[in-house]
Amino acid sequence: MTLREEYQASLKSSDTEEWFDLHFHRPLGFLWAKLFEKLGVSPNAITVASIFMGVVGGIMLYFHQPYLAWLNWVGMLLITWADTFDSADGQLARMTQQYSRMGRILDGVSGDLWFAAIGFALVFRELDFGDSLTGPHYFAQHEWQIWALGILSGASHALQAAMADCYRQFHLFFLKGSQGSELESAAKLREQYHELEWGRNFWSKLPLFFYLGYTSNQERMTPNMQRLRAALNEKYGENGVPSQEFRDYFRKLSLPLMKYTNILTFNTRIIACFIAVTINMPWLYFAFEIVVLNLLLIYMVLRHEGICKKALARVNS
């Protein structure tokens, strides 16, 4: 296999990859993956390293003093670097077949921790300084407002990322089958969760507890998708793959939404964050997540549910 072919094989799919990732994060991630493969570093170790870099980078966005403004650029560099590691862990896992549920959980946790650090840094930055639009120390006098924005922004981010991941994995199921998708079933996870004992299996049960909640929330938000999954399981067996004709049919309907899943993950939101920090109006980042990205999420949920309802009618007929 040539190096180019190996790089292509390390990608999830052309359907779900974003242009900026394909031209920046994925090539750099592949180089890191090749290096770590030679060094014998596991994908999970790379993910843990990305957590530390992303969290430290997020903290660096707090500093607003003119003589410390360079730390913001250090933070932006660290966060970008962390995201190349976030690409590398998945690419290395695909290159070496080191898939694991723990790796998937860690990968999701890493992004949440980065943005939690960013959120707290921006809240304390506003409390300490304010901004040019609302006036110096505005949020110092109205603390509850910036905390409300920060908390609502964090909750919005968690929901947006979870739903984007759900739709992407469902698309990959039709594109590559069950082996190419990390789509899970809350019912199965619940069975595995109850089989474990807290005393004997604490470190296995704890991440499964959070992952079960994560998957259950995804399923509650997608009733038509779950009906479609149940109908496909009944017709083709559990995790059975539909006919190629149906897979092509659903992929064609789902493909236009993949660009929105990318907007709701990393690149667009972090660019908005960097712009808000650079112009010293961090609260704008919170407003962007709460208003713009939530409106996009609502549109995506409604449209995807309509697609699943249409596909379900085709299965039943």
Characterise this structure:
- This protein is an all-alpha fold and 317 residues long.
- 77% of the residues lie in helices and 1% in strands.
- The chain is built from 14 helices and two strands.
- The N and C termini lie far apart (44 Å).
List the main descriptive attributes of the protein structure presented here.
77% helix; mainly alpha; 317 residues; globular; two-stranded antiparallel ribbon; single chain
Give the SSE string.
Answer: HHHHHEEHHHHHHHHH
Strand content: under 5%
Total helical elements: 14
The major beta sheet can be summarized as: 2 strands, antiparallel
The stretches of 5 or more residues where confidence is low (pLDDT under 50) are none
Helix content: over 70%
Arithmetic mean of pLDDT = 90
Rounded to an integer in angstroms, the radius of gyration calculated over CA atoms is 21 Å
* Strand order in the largest sheet: 1-2
Number of strands: 2
- Content-based structural category: mainly alpha
Shape: globular
Please report the distance between the alpha carbons of the first and last residues: 44 Å
